[in-house]
Structures are given as structure tokens and as C-alpha cells.
Amino acid sequence: MMNGIDVIIPVYKPDKKFDRLLSMLLQQTRRPEKIILMHTVTEDCSLTDLRGRVEKVAAKWDRAGVKPVDIRLVKVEKKDFDHGGTRNLAVRRYSNEDYVLCMTQDAVPADVFLLDKLWNCFKNPRVGAAYARQLAGETASFTEQYLRLHNYPAASKIKTKEEMDTLGIKAYMISNACAMYRRSRYEELGGFVTDTLFNEDMIFGAALIEAGDAIAYCSEAKVYHTHNYGLKEQFKRNFDLAVSQAEYPQVFSKVSSEKEGLSYVKGAVSYCAAQKRYGDMVAFLADAVARYCGFFLGKHHKWLPEKAVL
């Protein structure tokens, strides 16, 4: 039985974080067998452009006596990109290892032990997926800092169906910003859903939980991953998030996103009040309102005219 790890990363207009991500992957104590870059080509970054950047980073970490990591570049047309479908293509056509690590191009490993820590979670035979802790970057807003603390605490956890009542929607939580999957269970459960705006990771997480498997949240495996979205971006992102949930009622009707959201808001407001961070509180509440309005309208998008939805 192979115990190798392949890493899959969709790439679109990569910035400097991508170069740091690739550099850190090549320095891991447990090196991946293959890094598969599913590259959506643009005028700003052709396949040739990306290959040049990749070769430059890879050359820096070539080590004598160490087998080089196989880095594959796969061209994806923008019209063909799908959060679940593109990752499925990478797993089924280009990967052949027992473990698959899905990452996004802006999630940078915090140290050289990321792959080792995630892989260790699978020593528990019930674990079908394991995801990393996401840390806020130095320039992250208070809202992003608090969100990371709320969703990615310092304590690791093994989540199972038995805890659905207490965990709610967090029971299904996996983030493909940095999540490793046991390939055998990925295949047996049909992989990621296609034609969804978001949530391909959580929908697969729900399938794992319902099948009696476990999901490991590994706080010792850490990546830096934050977004400083404006209010309009938060509105649109949460609209899309809710639409993707509404399209899968068989999954998300069993758990409440609103309950988890309310817990998040209450915690942040209480913290700001205790620390007398009133400016941060105002900014946080504005962000929370944008998120909720987008989520509410997305959840009820069938009430809206098609032009508004698009």
C-alpha cells in the first residue's frame, strides 16, 4: 500500500503568495510525490509564464540525493473551471497516490511540518479527511482575525456523526484551502460534487459524516490564509455561498448556518466590548450585516429575478 501524497492546487492569476506556497511545499519534511497545478490561463499568466515561475522556485529547493517533486501543469479553460469538477479531474486523471491534499493558491504553509501533521491524522482508520488550521496574516483586519479564531481554534478535534447535535454545521466543515483526503474514501463516496458555486468540500464532508466516517481538524497543521474583502465582496460571496447551500437541501437542511453565524457575531461583539475596541466593533458589524444580507438573499434566490441573481 502506498502512503504517498499528491497536492492539487487550482491556479488563477497567481500572486506572490503562490510562489511562497510552492516554496514551502518543496521544503516539507514529508515531501509530496506530485504537485498538480490546475491552471486557468489568462492574458496576464500563460502556461509558459507559470512554468517559468515554477521552475525558478523548484530549482532553489533541488537537493542532492533527494528525489525531486513531480510538478505537473494542466491547462484549464476559464469556461470549464468548476470547484468540484476541476479537482475531480486532477485526482482521477493526474494523481495516483493514496492521499490527496487540496490547497488554494493563497494558503501558505506556516512551517515544514504541514503534510506530516495532516498525514498523521489518518492513523485513525475512521478518518476520511483532515483539514488544517488557518491563521490570519499580519495585515488581516480584526474581522478576519476573529473569524479565523472562531472557525479554527487552537484545539484539534475528531468530528463524527455522534456529535451532530452539538456541532451543527461545523460537523461537516472541511476547507479545501488546505484539506487532505483518504483516496479510497474519496472514490467510494463519489468525489466532489460538480456544478456548485462553493461548498464542494463541505458537501463531501457531509457525505463522510453520514457514512459514519470521521473528519479530523488538525490545529497542529497550519497555513496562513486570509481575505480582506470589502462589504460588496462579502455580500456577493455570501450570496453565492447560500445559493450553493440552497441547491443541496438534503445536506444543509439538517444543520443551521444561521445559528453558527449568530454565535460568531455574539462572540466578536462581546470581545470588542470587553477590550473597548469600538471602532473594530463597528467595522465588524458592518461586515456581519453584509454577510447576512447576502446569505439571506442567496438562500431565497428563487424569489429574485434571474438578472439580479446573475
What does this structure look like?
The protein has 310 residues and is an alpha/beta fold. The protein is 45% helix and 18% strand. It has 13 helices and nine strands. The chain has helices spanning 16-26, 47-60, 83-94, 114-120, 142-151, 164-167, 183-188, 200-210, 231-246, 249-252, 257-275, 278-299, 306-309, and strands spanning 5-12, 34-40, 70-76, 99-103, 108-109, 127-135, 157-159, 178-182, 214-224. Strands 1, 2, 3, 4, 5, 6, 7, 8 and 9 form a nine-stranded mixed sheet that branches. β2, α2 (47-60) and β3 form a beta-alpha-beta unit. α9 (231-246) runs parallel beside α12 (278-299). The longest helix has 22 residues, at 278-299. The chain is globular and about 55 Å long. The protein starts with a strand and ends with a helix.
What's this model, at a glance?
This protein has 310 residues and is α/β, with parallel strands linked by helices. The chain has 13 helices and 9 strands.
Largest sheet, described in full?
9 strands, mixed
Report Rg.
19 Å
Number of helices: 13
Contiguous runs where pLDDT drops below 50 for at least 5 residues = none
Morphology: globular
List descriptors.
9-stranded mixed β-sheet; globular; alpha/beta; 310 residues
Strand and helix map with partners:
Blueprint: E1 5-12, H1 16-26, E2 34-40, H2 47-60, E3 70-76, H3 83-94, E4 99-103, E5 108-109, H4 114-120, E6 127-135, H5 142-151, E7 157-159, H6 164-167, E8 178-182, H7 183-188, H8 200-210, E9 214-224, H9 231-246, H10 249-252, H11 257-275, H12 278-299, H13 306-309
Parallel strand pairs: 1-2, 1-4, 2-3, 6-9
Antiparallel strand pairs: 4-8, 5-9, 6-8, 7-9
